[in-house]
């Protein structure tokens, strides 16, 4: 990361990635998306700084293919797990990220929904660092995950993901709920 050429190479690589994502070949889109998590590990700032530019390609590539959506959610997970990134760097892209996660949570394919819920749990750990400012984002995700947590007849993978994510939510952001809301969550845990 300290190499002076990484930002230059990252910028050029992102230009090439965008071109591939905007193309019509789903196989190329799929393989191109697989590069992004690696780039996020090496130079996450490059992804974050270019997120608005990448958004056009991501919109075209991801949400017409469940496999591509899962790969993209893996990218977000990689970004969020990088502890070297300052929270301020994320703030500009929170609305877009929340939009993507909400689409993923609502996706009827259980693998996409599970990946989005798990990624939301990791994001809760970042958002809680400034919970009052980030409260709208936190509560938006929470309100989308809560019905799946309450659901009795749901895929096992989604059930596990929602259980773990709501636990992270309670630990990290539970202060945003009132006493009755917390009691309701605990009662659901007991019933599961």
Describe this structure in words.
With 192 residues, the protein is mostly helical. It contains twelve helices and no strands. It has helices at residues 6-21, 26-33, 35-42, 44-49, 51-62, 66-80, 87-91, 94-106, 110-127, 131-150, 156-173, 179-191. Helix 3 runs parallel beside helix 6, helix 8 (94-106) runs antiparallel to helix 9 (110-127) and helix 9 runs antiparallel to helix 10 (131-150). The longest helix is centred in the C-terminal third of the chain and has 20 residues, at 131-150. The protein is globular and about 50 Å long. 32% of the residues are buried. The model has no long low-confidence stretch (mean pLDDT 86).
- Tally the beta strands: 0
Helix content: over 70%
- Derived from helix and strand composition plus strand pairing, the structural class reads mainly alpha
- C-alpha termini separation: 44 Å
Biggest sheet record: none
Q: Strand-residue fraction?
A: under 5%
H/E element string?
Answer: HHHHHHHHHHHH
The radius of gyration is 17 Å
* Sequence stretches where pLDDT stays below 50 over 5 or more residues: none
Mean pLDDT: 86
Protein traits:
single chain, 192 residues, mainly alpha, 12 helices, 0% strand, globular
Helix-strand blueprint:
Blueprint: H1 6-21, H2 26-33, H3 35-42, H4 44-49, H5 51-62, H6 66-80, H7 87-91, H8 94-106, H9 110-127, H10 131-150, H11 156-173, H12 179-191
Helix pairs in contact: 1-5, 3-6, 6-9, 8-9, 8-10, 9-10, 9-11, 10-11
Summarize the structure.
This protein is mainly α.
């Amino acid at each position: 990361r300290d190499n002076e050429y990484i930002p230059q190479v990252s910028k050029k690589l992102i230009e090439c990635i965008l071109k591939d994502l905007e193309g019509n070949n789903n196989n190329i889109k799929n393989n191109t998306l697989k590069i992004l998590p690696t780039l996020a590990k090496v130079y996450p700032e490059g992804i974050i700084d270019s997120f608005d530019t990448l958004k056009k390609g991501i919109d075209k590539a991801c949400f017409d293919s469940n496999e591509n959506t899962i790969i993209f959610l893996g990218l977000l997970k990689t970004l969020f797990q990088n502890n070297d990134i300052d929270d301020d760097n994320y703030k500009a892209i929170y609305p877009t990220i929340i939009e993507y996660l909400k689409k993923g949570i609502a996706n009827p394919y259980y693998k996409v929904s599970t990946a989005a819920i798990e990624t939301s749990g990791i994001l809760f750990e970042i958002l809680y660092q400034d919970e009052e400012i980030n409260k709208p984002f936190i509560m938006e995700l929470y309100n989308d995950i809560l019905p799946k947590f309450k659901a009795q007849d749901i895929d096992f993978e989604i059930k596990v993901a929602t259980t773990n994510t709501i636990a992270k939510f309670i630990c990290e952001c539970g202060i945003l709920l009132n006493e009755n809301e917390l009691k309701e969550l605990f009662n659901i845990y007991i019933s599961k």
